[in-house]
Amino acid sequence: MKTNTTFTSKALNALGPLLALILIWGLFYTFGNQAIGSSEGIESIVQQTVVIGIAAIGMTFIIISAGIDLSIGSAIALCSVIGAKMAMAGSSPTVVAIATLLTGAVIGLSIGLLVVHAKLIPFITTLGTLLILRGIALGLANSQPINAQEANWLRFWLNSLPENMRWLIIPPGGWLMIILAALAAGVLRFTVFGRHVFAVGSNEQTARLCGVAVDRIKLYVYMIGGAFAALSGLMLVSYQGQGDPTGATGYELDIIAAVVIGGASLSGGVGSVFGSLIGALIMTVIRTGCTLNGIDESTTRIITGTIIVAAVAIDRLRRKSA
Amino acid sequence: MSKPVNDVARLEMRDIRKAFGAQIALGGVSLKVQAGEVHALVGENGAGKSTLMKILSGAYQPDSGTMFVDGQPYAPINPAEGRKRGVGMIYQELSIAPHLSVAENIWLGIEPQSGVLLDRAKMRTEAQTTLAGLGHGDIDVDMPAGNLSVSHQQIVEIARALSMGCKIIVFDEPTSSLAQADVQRLFDLIDQLSRRGLSIIYISHFLEEVRRLSSRLTVLRDGQSVACHITQSITDDAIVAEMVGREVKDLYPRSQRKLGEVLLEVNIPNRGTLTLRRGEVVGLCGLVGAGRTEFLRAVFGLEENVSQKITIAGHTHVAEPRNNWLHRMGLVSENRKEEGLALELSISDNVCLPALKKIAKLGFVSPSTCDQHTDEWIEKFGIRCQGPQQAIGRLSGGNQQKAAIARLLESDCDILLLDEPTRGIDIAAKAKIYEIIDQLVADPVRPRAVLMVSSYLPELLGVCDRIAAVRRGQVGEATPVGQTNSEKLMRAATGV
Q1: B199-203 and B168-172 beta bridge pairing
Q2: What is the pTM of this model?
């Protein structure tokens, strides 16, 4: 009986962001333009969420381990450039995907090595890599977007669904995000590695005392973050039809906000992949809702900011009283 | 119960009740403290002392019940209002702003101003006067408070309470981080404060402190005030019996132990040698800072920059936590909060952490298997909790410690290194831990070996088979308990 109460409260913790999402969406639908509930509206929300959402899956690992990666936006841009260039050069989809994901993992590995072996603070380290990666992206692309309109296999993931594929309801990229999230959530909850990530984030000293290979876990976590950033970069190419070295600017904040709205703690040890996805959806719904209702950009930003702060504040209050 | 008093009490708390969700923390507590009295509050961890004091300070509001200060209704909505009404708290963990000066700390939150500017001159002189009044005119009021010793920081906190005009001061386990000489000075200071007419509420696990300081004491058990006694007219045994609700007969059980093979051999250059056999408890005693903990940590490979070879059951390897767990040796840290436990994580996560690889199949762990294993330890050790998924940070210290020991057994450890295993936990939990240690080394099927560090000699003498004194980083000869006593050990530890 007693076990049930803790399970219920855990379920409620995950439900909080979901309820907020439904509430915000419901408000826009009831009092504003009902296009937000149309199939085009939902498709557009998914298209915009996938880039942030996929990166947020990787960021969830990093934040649970009490790390942070501010350079994820730059990594997404760099990988979008690499992906677009290779695709246009005629490399096969498999080669492009593997090469881009490897690039992302190597970026993550470098950050991890700096954090683990040079014992630098992740915040500062990734503030540096934010600039470095952006610089590399600009250099590779000669500061020009790389057109990838013709890479059909890449466009397929986030394009509007053709008539004969309507049964998918949302673009394949959306399904990819959901499947990866389910896998990631499973890894975090049901594998030794996942439990070690939580342990390192909750109390690194305890983890070390208990024989957890703390350094190795951190390296893996940043590599996972980098690989998801790379995939997110490919999705950006898919969505925009180009690899943009100046793209994804400021995405790091959206991604971190999504993870935190989803219930993660920046001090580590707490967080959930599904929460992060819902966090990402909340941000897109606000943006789409505002656009559909003709709310201007300045007001949209103020509303988004307010909702981020409110969501986190409500969450903290709820936890305190629990 | 307390005798009827005619004059108005300095503080009266009547039938205070407080619940957190379904958990009843206080189920009706009454407390009456007179002016100039040192009133002790005793009870096990989880009996409700902290909750009661948080209500008194204003940090929590009671669900029902009333409070009076000098006969006036008192219902603070926050600690600031509590202090304004004269209630000050000195917590176990001091709340000093380390970068601010002593004077700034004393005046924190009530800074005197002349116009819009701070009245620095007044802050300095009055801080000096207050400290001098406490017999500590020697503390430099301009020094950053973080540079002071712990005992002097405590004096600064007391000075802060006095500057705010507090007439009721609560001391929550104030001696836990003090050296012996400072403890004596603190006691003299508390006597002096009560002679000035201040009311002191003194919370401690140490009955000898309660006896030394208090005129009356109130016993809490399971969120209720069980009784109020005149300290002189009640025996220690009777107090303990009231605290735990039954009689504790034999604090240090000692079953028939059978010595087995050598399990652990340590030879650390310049630090000493030690062997540990199956079926025995070896203790390390010594003064704080003598290097007992460092020795234990070096054995476990937790000392930075020290690479140490140890021999477990005949196999020699470099001491490193991961290796040690594989060789069935585990350590319980002296610092539960910072090192021992991951407080946000569940009991199950904490207990199973080093054993995950053994529990897992192909890298996958089933949370429900972990919960089942944890449930067994919860039952076996009597860990009071809501279930294996409860965050371990929510348990009382004693129950956290039982879980920390369960972690070693879940990992099948034969060698248990315990660093201050009963620090800061209540007497019933201590008794349980002594019982667990005894059962482990006396296990007829598979006796374990225990190496423990403790600052409390009676505990070592009660639990151990052999005790070694550590002095200046050197571990001495381990002497059988039958051939030693606390005096001899103190001599060895101090080098007299």
Answers
A1: parallel
A2: 0.77
Ranges of each domain in chain A: 50-248
For residue B192, the domain's CATH number is 3.40.50.300
> Do B93 and B221 sit in the same domain of this protein?
yes
Are B153 and B282 part of one and the same domain? no
B252 falls within a domain: no
Q: How far apart are CA B74 and CA B72, in angstroms?
A: 6
Q: Pull the structure tokens for residue B354.
A: 């080093």
User: What pLDDT score was predicted for residue A10?
Assistant: 56
The domain tally of chain B equals: 2
Residues 6+ apart with CB under 8 A from B392: B341, B342, B343, B345, B346, B347, B349, B350, B400, B403
* Same domain as B475, residue B361: yes
Among partner residues A2, A199, A265, which is closest to B342 by beta-carbon distance? A199
Note the pLDDT of residue A195: 95
Nearest to B476 by CA among B266, B265, B285: B285
Q: Is residue B256 part of a domain?
A: no
> Are B206 and B282 in the same domain?
no
Q: Please indicate whether, in this complex, the C-beta atoms of B349 and A206 are within 8 angstroms of each other.
A: no
CB contact under 8 A, B390 and A203: no
Q: Return d(Cα B456, Cα B478) in angstroms, integer.
A: 17
Question: Rounded to 5 degrees, what are φ and ψ at B419?
Answer: -100, 115
Which ipTM value was assigned to this complex?
A: 0.83
3-state class percentages of chain B: helix first, strand second, coil last, to nearest 5: 35, 25, 40
Compute the Cα dihedral for A101, A105, A111, A115 and give only its sign: positive
Is B3 a member of any domain?
Answer: no
In a domain, B6, yes or no: no
Report residue B434 as tokens: 């002594």
| Maximal CA-CA distance, chain B | 78
What is the CA B268 to chain-centroid distance, rounded?
Answer: 30
Asked if A206 and B389 come within 8 Å (Cβ–Cβ), the reply is no
Please report, to the nearest 10 degrees, the dihedral formed by the alpha carbons of residues B125, B130, B133, B134 taken in order.
-130
For residue range A27-56, list pLDDT tens digits in order: 999 998 888 888 888 888 999 999 999 999
pLDDT digits 0-9 by tens, B136-147: 889 999 999 989
List CB contacts of B477: < 8 A, sequence separation 6 or more: B468
Q: Yes or no: say if B434 and B252 are a contact pair by the CB < 8 Å rule.
A: yes
- Domain boundaries, position B94: 11-244
B279 and B400 together in one domain: yes
CB pairs under 8 A between A and B: 94
A265 touches chain B (CB under 8 A): yes
Tell me the range of A58-72, A305-319, B9-23, B377-391 where mean pLDDT is highest.
Answer: A58-72
Please, where are the H alpha helices in chain A?
2-31, 39-64, 72-88, 93-116, 122-140, 152-155, 172-190, 192-202, 204-209, 214-240, 251-261, 273-292, 297-321
Q: Is the domain of B135 the same as that of B209?
A: yes
Contacts of B407 in chain A (CB under 8 A): 210
In terms of domains, do B56 and B163 share one? Answer: yes
Give residue B244's pLDDT.
75
